[in-house]
Amino acid sequence: MTGLYYEEFEVGETIEHEKRRTISERDNQQFCDMTMNQQPLHLDAEFAAETEFGERLVNGLYTMSLAVGLTIPETTDGTIVANLSYDNVEHPNPVFHGDTIRVQSTVTDKRETSDGDRGVVTMHVEVFKLTDSDDVLVCEFDRTVLSLKRDTAE
């Protein structure tokens, strides 16, 4: 297990997640197929070419899901009871096939549960696509988890 127990999260701490992922056309197609999302903006190159974006967009829910997955090793791998919520989701910029993303999580809040056996941790997750100049924010959201405490996990 590489995740953090409740006691190890520090409010204000930003965790830079080292894993990155380049999103392929196949990734986007499979996600759309699995979720039965047939939006032509994601799948139809001819249709998407006529939009303001000029090409197909990666499904925003895939971008968000991938971001959560990339955060797991340094946050909740083996130390989580449950994801409680995803709030304030925004997609300020598009993601295209071939874009590489990186993720960072900032701990914004934590509190013990009423019985004191576990803790609730909220993290603000930011997703960036890498560019030659500055990284571009493509998704952000708040993720709240129910976390194990070290002494109750052993």
UniProtKB/TrEMBL annotation:
CDD domains per record: FkbR2 (cd03451)
UniProt-listed PANTHER family: BETA-METHYLMALYL-COA DEHYDRATASE, MONOAMINE OXIDASE-RELATED
Pfam families listed in its UniProt record: MaoC_dehydratas (PF01575)
Domain MaoC-like: 11-123
Entry protein name: MaoC family dehydratase
Source organism of the structure: Haloarcula argentinensis
Domain of life: Archaea
Residue ranges of coiled coil: none
